[in-house]
Specification:
This protein is mainly α and 94 residues long. Helices cover 69% and strands 0% of the residues. The protein has three helices and no strands. The chain is flat and about 75 Å long.
């Protein structure tokens, strides 16, 4: 009797887990539709006339070819630095 109960419960729970995983995937795919139906807003449109909005200026100024090249080079340098630090940490661990 206990074995049949355990088999039954495990079947029900495994089916429930599969159902939850499928529902979770569907909810992620249709996130925008679900949020719209529930009246949930995940973003806000900011107009130029909005007061009290903090705007941060780019350190690279206007987006032009010269500043874009500076941005690309700085990004590359940062990636190299992170890779070097990661390699040094891994070397200490190993």
């Amino acid at each position: 009797m206990k074995k049949r109960l355990a088999v039954g419960l495990s079947s029900v729970l495994s089916s429930l887990i599969v159902a939850v995983i499928l529902i979770n995937n569907c909810m992620q795919i249709y996130e925008g539709t679900v949020n719209g139906m529930l009246g949930i807003s995940t973003s806000k449109v900011i107009n130029e006339s909005d007061e009290g909005v903090i705007r941060y200026e780019s350190a690279y100024g206007e987006l032009n070819a010269e500043n874009l090249q500076k941005l690309i080079q700085d990004t590359y340098d940062e990636c190299v630095a992170e890779e070097e630090e990661g390699a040094a940490r891994m070397k200490r661990v190993l």
